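Researcher: Quick one. two chains, 968 residues in total.
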Amino acid sequence: MRRRMSTSVATTAVVGSLVLLTGCGAADMTKQASPFANAQGAKSVTLSVQSWVGAQSNVAVAQYLLEHKLGYRVDTVQVDEVPAWDALSQGRVDAILEDWGHPDQEKRYVDDKKTIARGGGLGVTGHIGWFVPTYLVKQHPDITNWKNLNKYSSLFRTAESGGKGQLMDGSPSYVTNDKALVNNLKLDYQVVFAGSEAAQITQMKQFAKEKKPFLTYWYSPQWLFKKVPMTEVKLPPYKEGCDTDPAKVACAYPHTPLQKYLNADFAKKGGNAAAFLKKFKWSTEDQNEVSLMIADQKLTPEQAAKKWVDSHASTWKAWLS
Amino acid sequence: MATVTASAPRALPGGLLKHRAAQKLLLLALVAAILVPLANARWASGSWPAALTVDLTKPLTSASNWIIDNRDSNPLFLYFFGYISNAVVISVHAVYLVLLAAGWAGVTALGALVAWRVAGVRLALGTAAAFLACGLLGMWVATMQTLALMVVAVLVSVVVGVVLGLAAGLSDRLDRGLRPVLDTMQVLPAYAYLLPVVLVFGMGVPAAVLATVVYAAPPMARLTALGLRGADKEVLEAVDSLGATAPQRLLTARIPLARKELLLGLNQTIMMALSMAVIASVIGAGGLGDRVYQALASVDVGAALAAGIPIVLLAVVLDRVTGAAGEQAGEESRSLRPWLYAAAAAVAVALAGRLAGRLDWPDSWTFDIAEPVNRAVDWMTAHLYSGVPVVGGTADWAGHFTTWVLNPVRSGLQGLPWWSVLLVVAALAWLIGTWRTALTAVLAMAAIGVLGVWQPSLDTLSQVLAAVAVTLVLGFATGIAAARSDRFERLLRPVLDVFQTMPQFVYLIPVVALFGVGRAPAAAAAVVYALPAVVRITAQGLRQVDPAALESARSLGATPAQQLRQVQLPLARPALLLAVNQGVVLVLAVVVIGGLVGGGALGYDSVFGLAQGDLATGLVAGAAIVCLGLMLDRVTQPTERRAKKGA
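Model:
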């Protein structure tokens, strides 16, 4: 009880003085940092981590370098892709290191409100597609064309997909047109959402272990390709603008150069940290190397980052200069 | 009070009771006979008629866009919500700084000394061990973040709860108005609270704290009101006769008399705040919950457990310490001196830690449990998943459960004409409650249809029904065993304690590893989560059966099975009904989160809403979850409600 008393006194004092200080001024909630930032006078940076492992690798390496080479304290918060834009705009996170393309959000926050600044490319190109395991392609070489998928739909039947074949999708937060695609390409498939990438990966590993057939929404760069070799199924080719109407999409996903974004204030006043994050740029192989250490060898992100940093000095030295 | 109303119907002769039930059903059949042909002629369709839905997507989307665009310019946000948000951020920051300044040694010492004063030496040692374990697991900073958020949320909840409770305790009219609202708030899944606060405050700590307050304040308000109302009439009259004014009477008699309830309220508020603080990591709360959430993203059960264990330890410690405070509430004023010594000792330890330069938990003192845990999980998936001789693998069970139970129940529910679903709901709710509860249940179900999410809601409902059935079979069996054997109950108790305080998230990944993706693992997680409460209530109910009744049955030569069937189970009926009610409420809470592991339906929609920033979809799904929760509660809630499960 004693502690409760003293903290409550402290809290009321702080809140009281806040009200006195600000008086009748406006309180703009879009300009609030995380309460866990800048504790004890340390310079701190808050990074958004998205739920997939590649994004964790970016953050782990950036965090390691910020902490050990630049002397910052780094907080990470897991936020999904779209809400992360809002959090970034409000300054609750300082940077997103890997964005897969959200034109609406970009227009709203970067061009209209100017609360978010572009941070340059990550150096990695992302691609989403439909994949089948390579062992299945060896049995049925023509399965890699969407036109033949209906022929094989009985292979992919599960309890969840009813009488149709199962197309497994991952987290609801990821960019996907799969329901429209199945519909518009008249495929005898049912989209089943695993609900999270974690659930999807677990499921894929199980299938792979028993060499069972599966068809899945997947994307590169992804570390799982090293554990479960997969081949992409060809969809009708992507043309500029073929995916503007979400209900009528009938083409493949584009290749997206992944982008970084910084909170506008942080980009201006963030000092070394902001400069470093703008320069942060690495290759798909680098990212995969770290991802594999985290997700498969079960190293902590920090250990994985240390390992990578120790062996790639020339790459990261350029980011610090 | 509760016992009087609960036992009244039982005192009635069975014939009369049946008679009344028959009357109700007859009346309902009459109403149905008139209304159904009318409704069917107009909107003849199996599913909810499209003519009766209201599409809220457009207005909700534009509202959400308007809020985002005007959050930094509109006066409502600048002068009202902005201050709330600011106050939350600054208070959490202040508490966090205090905790960091005290250092790990200071916080541990303070926690242990408070526990010592309140609850004795054993709990003090336990508290210290719990804090040290948080550090050893490498979770010190995350624990402090969660603690900072909790301190603020609990303080605000207590203030809000006491104010509401005082109002309800002193005014009959307010009590009548507030009680149904508070009752309802307690049965809603935590997940449903997240979306509205995100809509207004955006992702982050302010939204998390406010969602926690909304979730955790009701028990405080309920118990405060209960305590004030339950005060001994004679004492109050004595105070009155001494000529005390109303405020004096409140401060010197009614509040002190309600101390036990107030402390119980505090205990429940803390437990609920903790469980919400973990779930709120989905909307950017940070701290331990966020570590669990991040670990689950990479299927890292070990790391999830490393963050989950501190949550469980915090929960157990907070529960025991506040519980002990409640039990001691009757004792008269103790001297302040030991408290001063304790405070001085804590400050001394904190200073010593500071001088030694050991404020942060040293990195070299951490112990990695993730790896061995993951090895165990890998072994489990490798050997139990499928192809186990005779019994088949877990994946096969999940497949059978989906094909033979979930699918038929779902297509059965979705195949029913919409009006017959409403009729069944009405009949069940009316049989067990009053016409008022029946009306609420029917309206809630109808609201789901109007919102345009009839099909996914029935899908969720089918999962709830299947999971509840499994929970009840397992729970009643275990509960009966626990009631019959003291030894078994002693073994079971710590297991139940731990399971009841684990964050719901942690259950999800092992079930995916065992059962794959889909509705079966969601149902499995729900069963595991709801089981402890059902077991506990069943065992308690059976144990509280009048020993005299049991003795007389025994003397008449009844076998143990006969005793159980003919004496214990009928007499424990209220407890068993409560167990059903709790089972339903808890199962719904987890089935909804099951959207994260392929549960689909409403849970998926609300996850999707949060994840894609598509608040329209999310809010509609959230509203449907609320309605479903309301309906399920009313349909399973007999007569009086009792105190809820703590966490």
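The two ends of chain A are 52 Å apart (CA to CA).
Researcher: Thanks, that's what I needed.
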